[in-house]
Amino acid sequence: MPRWTNWARTVTATPGELLCPQDDEELATTLSRAASDGRRVKIPGSGHSWSEIAAPNDAWLTFQKMPRSVVVEGELVRVRGASTLGELCDTLEAQGRMLPNLGSVTAQTVIGATATGTHGTGATLPILSAGVVGMKLVTGAGERVSLGPDDPTLNDARVHLGALGVVTELTLRTLPRQRLQERLINLPFDAVLERLDELVASHRHLRLWWLPKVGCVQVYTADLTDAPDTGPNALTIHLDRIGVQQPIFTMLLAIGRLLPALVPLIHRFAQATSFGDRARVEDLRRVLSMPVPARHHEVELAIPREATLDALKEWWALLDRADYVPDFVQELRFVAADDIPLSPCSGRASAYLGGYAANPSTAARYLPELLALGRAYAARPHWGKVFDHDHAELATLYPRWANFQALRRRFDPAGVLSSPFTERVLGPVSS
Ligand SMILES: Cc1cc2nc3c(=O)[nH]c(=O)nc-3n(C[C@H](O)[C@H](O)[C@H](O)COP(=O)(O)OP(=O)(O)OC[C@H]3O[C@@H](n4cnc5c(N)ncnc54)[C@H](O)[C@@H]3O)c2cc1C
Questions:
Q1: CB within 8 A of 47, min separation 6: which ones?
Q2: Atom of ligand 1 nearest to the CA of 48
Q3: What is the structure's pLDDT at 239?
Q4: N or C: which end of the chain has fewer CB within 10 A?
């Protein structure tokens, strides 16, 4: 049996069985047999989660032999099988369409990304799953179900953590292909605190990055524009796109791991060479998503939008007094509210605190401290990133928790899609 490992190489599994159904009918038989035999099945996407969410501990189901396609139908797009966000974007682009928003990379499967509530940034833009208007799945009981836009079940299933069944097809809303005008300005911390509300309100996309111990924040804004495409007009973006930046960055990370005292110096070098003020106009996809970065560890916490300034001050203070320096960029993003039961933005407009570190020993100290900070703000962790919450705690954080649990009991009564991860974060199916 092949060993399964996630992209970050932080989670591995040695499943006892590999299941490769060829079509929906065989998939339904596979799941109903598993339900009657009391076996557990897990289908990973592309493994781009840090949490154990995708680990196939018992039977590993793959879409290797299942059909995979992306079909544009007017303003909608139908995605089947293990198609990635990148493949989806390629097809949309060729037909003059785009997704309304994207996260930082497009290597994930569309089904995996929406399963965990993957998001981009922009105060008026919800998580990607909010754009799902149709879903076909085979439930844990082996029943083939099709959920349309008017079916109230669809909303409850939009973020499902792979715990309802195996999704075979999604239909998503799209927009006409457009360009973004991106601006990067570097601001001192005080100026960020003063201008944050205005920046959030006045831009379609807003992302804050900072490298610890540099003393300024990179403020990225991006807005729709008809201005002509400028291309990747900064050398560093161009180098990143052709794959030259990453080996350099990986080497700097390795130096920082060997000699942690050099990390602040490396950050100042990276800031000076890569993050000067600049502007460009490119397709939304090229502005918002970037090549997959060097391996690292991530915690990401959705807090109520109105708590952003307090949380940010506390987060900066934590990094100031820490006797370690996270060797990776730190990130703040904004996402609109929705009413999806397991969306981290359920019922509240949110800011996402993204704490990242590549050095495993720094991550082991930093990430728990950030999780503790988030608890004071009722933070909801990103399902695909590192977190230590259990279902008792999570149930208090999600107002529509019971809706999802009722759907889970209906779609997977025997717990075929359960795993040690779902036991911890969702509890047993019967609870
Ligand atoms: C470099 C990097 C950058 C990232 N950037 C962002 C970002 O900008 N914004 C953000 O929000 N997140 C981001 N993430 C997190 C990532 O988007 C999520 O973890 C996402 O879920 C990963 O998709 P995947 O295809 O790898 O799914 P996996 O991690 O493999 O699986 C996630 C879940 O989906 C389920 N699943 C997959 N396929 C099916 C199916 N067919 N039926 C039922 N369940 C299924 C799995 O069982 C599992 O429960 C990033 C991750 C990485 C590594």
A1: 4, 5, 6, 7, 54
A2: 26
A3: 79
A4: N
